[in-house]
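User: Can you help me understand a structure? I only have the sequence.
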Amino acid sequence: MAFTQAWLFSALAQATAAIVGLTIAFTISSYTTRREYVLDRTDKYRDEIIEFKGKYQYVFDNMSTTLKEDSTFHYDKVRFDLNDDAENWAEDQLDPKTAEAWAYISGIADILSEVDPNLDPDMTREQVGTINQGSEKLLGYFANGTDVSKEIYREVVELSEDSDVPEEYYYEDIFDEGRRVESWLSRFLTTKYDNQVATKPGDMPLSGQNFYSWATLFEELDRDAKHIASRSVGTDVNDFLNQEFSTNIIITNIKLSIVGIFIPLLLLVSSPGAKWPEFIASYVPYSLLSWLLYPVEILLVFAVVYYTSHLFHYMLVDLNYEVPTTMREVLGSEDTDSGND
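Assistant: Let's start by predicting it. Here is the structure, written out as tokens:
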């Protein structure tokens, strides 16, 4: 009987150690595979950021300079810091709507200026979100027929409040620095430019000096900004591992090691067959000690089975886990987590 108990404790400890080793190896393999995937995605994302910067920063700097020279608002810096409230700042300016549009144009250029292709080109999710918000604002400011676009027209051409905005204001060349915008449109929108049906008869509306040209550029910005936002998901190297999985694996492995390795080894060393310490044997009969181990054995086996089943469940869940690659997946996972809480 003593041999049987010693064998059980030894086998239990060995089997548990093998299970713990298996789960650790699985976790390391999962970590390595996912890390390589995210690093590859991050490298591609950074390449797209560099391309995004080269595509928009230069032309946006020129557009912001044009608005500032054609208006009377004042700002201490060359570019606006979009961490500040652009709308509240613009309300105090003589040309509030133009100032607001300038704030977002120069603010986006300011964010792009922080991207250094030679070091570690990156943009935080907050910066990407700010650019997306700015692109949506600019589309509204330069939309055809809106009160905001008409007000910007008034401020740029210095049209009095008593005068009506011309019906064809949207295609009228009013911006001085049009060549850079026209060059940008010709370079990046060649197919659209060539196949476009002229909205205004007799003229090519994409002159770079009118609202229509600027709105076309902002439409392209909005598409690219949304693409960059989608590509930024799943690129955070510090958050690529399924944190819930790793936490559960570590905690469960600790519990399993205690009930499956530490306690069996302790009982194996002090089992009746290995002679209990003399002070225990002098008070408790050997036969009683042997019988007392039966419920302990049963509890240990059930505990090992319980924690092992949990470990394999976590591993099965992790096999089906994928790094989020879209904002919908991120929001969906967040909703799931909040529901579990």
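Now, to help you interpret it: The chain has two domains: 2-39+240-340, 45-237. The mean pLDDT is 80. Let me know which part you'd like to focus on.
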